[in-house]
Prior knowledge:
By secondary structure, the chain is of the alpha+beta class.
Amino acid sequence: xxxxxxxxxxxxxxxxxxxxxxxxxxxxxxxxxxxxxxxxxxxxxxxxxxxxxxxxxxxxxxxxxxxxxxxxxxxxxxxxxxxxxxxxxxxxxxxxxxxxxxxxxxxxxxxxxxxxxxxxxxxxxxxxxxxxxxxxxxxxxxxxxxxxxxxxxxxxxxxxxxxx
Length: 164
């Protein structure tokens, strides 16, 4: 039988990694964790007789409807960014994006902020390490592309900067 604290830690590890699925069997119990696709909802069900936990994935039409326009708008914005000569600050690693140095603190930068090459724009937490991400260019933040607490992938665009 898995302890709730162990399950929570495993879910957190899978969420912060590039793994899509994790399956563990121990002492007659089986644990299966799978990241949902953006158009799926996760419902957790317990089977008391088998002492197993298993996610049940169900299509979410509302999420699909929300995701489709968002995807279209982001692809429409990408050519504009390239044509406008904007610099993209991308995530150098997989981790959790934090816009501020601590909870409740003001964001490092926001839309309209002036930055220099060494200006810290965010923190990416990876494996319990807080990594400060710098602007890399001098200019103005045109758009913030990630939300506070969001899991980001390697190479994912975080900010658009209009260089001076």
